[in-house]
Amino acid sequence: MSDPIYKYHVFACTTTRPPGVPHPSCGQAGSVDLANYLREKVKDAELGGVHINPSSCLGVCDRGPAVVVYPEGTWYSVKNTQDMDDIFETHLKGGRIAENLLMPMKPTG
Q: Is 18 in contact with 60 (CB distance < 8 Å)?
């Protein structure tokens, strides 16, 4: 098996639904700005091996903004830049899961 391209591949949901739609979306909760914030932190730190991707709906809109980090498949609920700082420092730089931000895993629907 070859080496992975990225040490960490981060997907941040940036789906935004139109106003008036009753179903929440991560975009309405500021996920686009949060994803851009994390991307800039990684870039400014010259943290190689980490790639931040915007994502379409990850299917957990009621628990978002949603961020998932691979290869572990760790799902986070983020609310603000401080949460992104924690993911950056703890997970992406430190290699440990940011336990305080783990998304509650419950059945959807």
A: no
Structure tokens at 13: 């949901």
Task: Please answer whether residues 40 and 85 qualify as being in contact, where contact means their C-beta atoms are separated by less than 8 angstroms.
Answer: no
The per-residue pLDDT for 105 is 78
Burial class (CB in 10 A: 0-12, 13-18, 19+), 41: buried
Whole-model pTM? Answer: 0.89
Phi, psi of 16 (to 5 degrees): -125, 125
| Residue in 54, 43, 50, 46 with CA at minimum distance from that of residue 15 | 54
How many angstroms separate the CA atoms of 77 and 65, rounded?
Answer: 6
| Beta carbons within 8 Å of 32's beta carbon, 6+ residues apart | 14, 16, 54
